[in-house]
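When time allows, look over one protein, given below as sequence and tokens. The question is which stretches look regular and which look disordered:
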Amino acid sequence: MSDSNSRSILEDMIKSVITRDGKGTADTMLISSHLSQMKMFGIRQGVEFYPMQDNLGTQRFDFIQQVIKFNQLDARLDAIWDRFLVYGKGLFYIRPTKKSYRIYWFNKDSYRSYYSPDGELEEVVIIYPYKVKSSKGFSGVGLNTDKRYMRLKITAKEIEEFHSEQELKFDQENTNFAAFDKKVVENSMEFIPCVEVFNNPDAFGTEGAGEFEFLSNQIVAHDEMVKNIRANLSFFGNPTLLSSRPKQDIVESDSETAQRPSISSQSGFGSNVDLFSSTYKQDPITRQQPGYAGKPGSGMRVPRVIANLEPSDRVGFITPNPVGSDQARYTEQLRSEIRLALGGIDDLSITNVTATEIKSAYGRVSATAKKKCLQIYQYGICRVFELIIYQEEQIFRKSLAFSAGLKYPVPPEATDDQAVLDKALEKYDKQKAKYEQKLQAAVDEALETQEIPDGVVGLAPDGDRTVLWRWMGPVYEDTAQDKLNQSIFTRNLQELGVDSIEALKYLFPSKTDDEIAGMLSGFPFRMVGEVQRAYSSFIDLINQEMRTPHPQQPNLPMAADPRLDLTPFLYRTLESLQKEVTYAGRYRSSDPISTPDIPDPSEQLRGSSNSSPSSFRGDFPPMGGTDNSTGGTSTTSASPDGGSGLPISPYSVQPPSTTGDSTSGEPLQGRIYQGGRTPEFTSPVPVPGSTVGADASSRPSQLRFPTDNPIQQRGSADLYAWDREQPGLLQRLFPNIYGDNAGATSGKRSKRSKSSSN
């Protein structure tokens, strides 16, 4: 079978599935099974669309829900999925109405899209039929039909609309339409309100591909196999009766006129006389294909009980095998391979498995469906809502400017004098900048006071317009045991030090960070208790270090060692405590990438009329308002007491004063020394009898001992240190025994006398 024939047969199959036409001749269920599986994992229990940022109450969320309800989008998702998967691409078209926004979906045969070299959408042409009340055509002249055709040519500046009684084609010129059928209106949105989505996208500038086009030969071959199997079951499924009794004694009386089941009769041939030459049935009404209509193989009916049999009578059945085992096995294998190539799984091949194994087996299906969801939801419907929100924000700015008495400056007129034109454009830019400044001040005042003047409509600007989506429920519901295990896993992550928002994503995977932060607005008594106990433990350790002398320098406590400083851990616990009780959402500025390109009318006067719409970006969109093009997100969260929400910063602690050389020359900061130096365990192990000497090459965080260190002196180190701090005190208190420590004083006096002599 040639490729053209396979594609033609495949198109007929697809059309019957998409249109829900039961008259199709397809026997295979590959197409409908794959579409049903993708929709089950792509839609699940429903899809919810919501704004990522909605700081001004729930204005954006409520608006999105109104648009969804107005368009009945949740009920149309099944049809959108079918057409998107089958045809490989589609177009969402936004049409403002008096009440809301109407969202249209068009298949690839109903529109043509044209892009600029930069990949920006420049023009869209749509042709679709619609129904009207049956009349005598336009102006009482024409065909008496209720079907009309519309042709839309959409650009960023204007929309051309044509109506016709005859079917329109994309290759027709505009001159073929009558003048009264044409209507040109200004595009009030000032951008193309269309979003094109692609299935299996390759690269920019390429077309999407349907799910079944590359497997047309295999799908048609499987359909032929199923047809042959059904025909064999229809013909060979009924057993053949063998009997020595006459026909009248076995066959029921009402089945005398029925055709005898044979190969010729099942193939469409009939005979007026039994066992006589057959003739082909020419009547198309009575001719039937085997296995599709009527009762296949019901030529004669035999009673369930055959009575009055003599001992010499014989009655038996011949039961042939209609389908071979190899044929059935190969058909099943081909069906599984096709479903595997499509990214799904054959449901009939999953047998004798547990619920957990079923979830694992459908992991491939879930991954494939999620990729399709990114195209339909993330880059399709979500993008549509972002454009609608942007338009509502521009309406808000325009109506607010009108209420505040602000008028947008009029662009200068074209003139041949370049100097005059440049001066006019410079003046226009200054007026426009002043207008934008005043309008932005009015918007900020309205948002700060939360008082909207009368007559202002639309949505107030609220930063990032990103719209997200999530499933309202999984395909397989989690049991109570599954939820318990997930909660235990989340708590274990928190005990390991993982941030609560990151840990709760495993328990609530569909929630955003801001929503989880809102959920954590309560009092985390368990986390607070654990942090308090950790803080108390560090305090106890610090107290022990303050009471314990350093083994290398007994005149100092262990807390004086920078490497044993526990103060940073105290700050760490306080930071953790503050974060656990002050979770808040983040404000995100508007994303310049998702903002539609709005042409500036003055750019044509600057010599940019031949450039693409992307070059009209400008710094001051004519709709009003300047977008924050810095992008990024703000990581600072508002604290409960109205502070900046910055983490607690440790203050500097000066080390205790020691005699001799300075230890490091750095204040004792509340920090932990990071890596980058040789670990302590790599230092050489001291041999017995050795002492720790001062080394000028010691690390900054290492204790250094002066040359007159008590440990390095003869005699009692305590008496030496006491005499060093209180010179002559021991001699006055204990004159009789002072001579036992003469080495210490003599050494000290010798140094003093030497220094004095110098």
Observations:
- The first strand starts at residue 47 and ends at 51.
- The chain has a mean pLDDT of 75.
- The first helix runs from residue 3 to 18.
- The chain has 19 helices and 14 strands.
